[in-house]
Amino acid sequence: MFTNTQIDIETLPKVSDIALIPVEKSYIKIVLFNLCVIFISIIGTLFGLKFLKEDSKFDSIATTLIIGLIVVFIVQFVVLVLGFKNRKYALREKDIIYTKGLLNFSTTILPFNRVQHVEISRSFLARKLNLATLEIYTAGESGSDLKIGGLPEDVAESINEYLTTMLDDRV
Q: For a Cys staple, 144 with which of 2, 23, 135, 168, CB 3.0–4.6 Å?
């Protein structure tokens, strides 16, 4: 006979009780550099178009767009800096947890039994700072399900090796 007993929510383990490890503080340099590159490219393009195109109406629109982009850049910069302290992770016996965000805070818990593939990537700046990004893939998704940037290179390698060994043991 089918039964479906109710679970007492008070007895469930709380994610907030887990000791999360913050990503490396130097990773903020990479995050902010990427933000600056994007906004400088867009604003630079608008400046170039503004001076190449001799149209007062376009000049007015471009100036408004540039000012708007500068305001968006400043807001995004502040949100990234303030939210950076929330980028934390924890490796547990059966899963990995990652939290991030300020205005849009999220917690991702990925059980190891769903992991299909693990990768480590390192950009040019990340290599200079000895950092890496760990990407964990599960079945049925078209991208990584969990991406943790700002890990020390040796920590990312250790987690990668641990998960790969776990995957090999399942086969």
A: 135
Q: Which CATH architecture has domain 86-170?
A: Roll (2.30)
Residue-level pLDDT at 144:
66
Q: pLDDT (tens digit, 9 = 90+) per residue, 87-105?
A: 999 999 889 999 999 989 9
Annotated domain spans of the chain: 27-83, 86-170
Q: pTM of the prediction? A: 0.82
CB 134 within 8 A of CB 156: yes
- What is the SS3 assignment for 85? helix
Decide if 83 contacts 101 (C-beta within 8 A). yes
Report the alpha-carbon distance of residue 100 to residue 23 in Å, rounded: 10
Name the strand (E) or helix (H) holding 108. Answer: strand 106-111
Give the model confidence (pLDDT) of 57-89 as tens digits: 888 888 899 999 999 999 999 999 999 999 999
| Contact status, residue 163 vs residue 136, Cβ threshold 8 Å | yes
Q: How does 132-163 read in b/e, with b if 16+ C-beta sit within 10 Å?
A: bbbbbbeeeeeebbbbbbbbbbebbeebbeeb
